[in-house]
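The data are set out underneath:

___
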Amino acid sequence: MITVRVLVFLCLVIAGISSGVAQTVIKKRVMTPSQQAGAPLAETRRKAINVLPFQRPLDAKKLKKWLEISSQCTMAEFELFLSPLSAEEQELLNVIEDKPAPIINRLHFENLRHVLKEKALVSLRIEEKLQHDSLTHTTPAVENLLYGAFDAVFASVGPPHGSPRYGDVIIRLKDSVREKGWATPFSGMHFMYAIRHKDARKMQDLLAAGTTLPASRYNPLHLGFDDRLHFSHYVVTEKSWNKMLAYQAILVHRNLDDSPASQKVKQRFTEMLTEKDPTKFWSLYIPARIKNGTPEQDAENIPFGYLEGKFDDQISIDCFTSIEVPADKLSEVRSWPEAQPFLHLIRAKPAGTP
């Protein structure tokens, strides 16, 4: 079997694919003032370099620049600590660059009609402003406190079909949408419980009940400066997404052992180096999960990496390349008045697609 440290590493980098904390669904929340996703992280980094107020607003332009700087620092550290690269590792960096990672939003079917009506995927904050109280949403309040998640739209970066646990509808996005986003190698909930070792589920339940989290930094349910500062070091902006996914794969590959399962993972790594077809490449990078698979099968099919993309406020339907729905729902969807302008995008999910 694959070593324990590999499995621990994968738990840290693949929150959207591996088992994670179930996110509490909340239909109504007390909303905090509007901000951009990522702003709490930038504010924390400002305080980290000087406690005195800078007396300048953290506007959208400055936030975007900070995200880029933070990402550059993270990537530079990866390059330093991974060096020197083997010939195989360098080849992966070369071949992954011309294979844009799939960027996919998964959606619950009951929310699809709303997306078609609004002609966009929108953040929870915008949904609240539109007063769509009937919509369910899985954005945890814990993540909003951490980095401003209520102002973000989410998409997986890497998995060929997205993360099925977020819904049965697949919305495939144009690669150009990455210009409006940034990413981390896991969700905020996963970060809080797997890396910060806090009871994220209990924290989420408290917030869902309208209770404020403890103010003392010594309380295990506190969320504050140290958490945001730590999370800020995982920010990766769009120019580095493919390279970061390559670095994740290199780390997984280096930490494999000589077990039969590891040998099959190594074989997948080798196959990626010569695979020309982008779809097949990403299916090797993140294989489909085997339902009710054995531990051995799960070990053989471990993903090489994952990123969770975060986009400000909304993603226009102009950025969609397709909307894939369960085959038994296709006729219904195509009959909706809201769907008529977008019939060219709507299709049935291929058989066997999770």
Summary: The CA atoms of residues 89 and 250 lie 6 Å apart. Confidence is low (pLDDT under 50) at residues 1-31. The chain has one domain: 4-316. The first helix runs from residue 4 to 13.
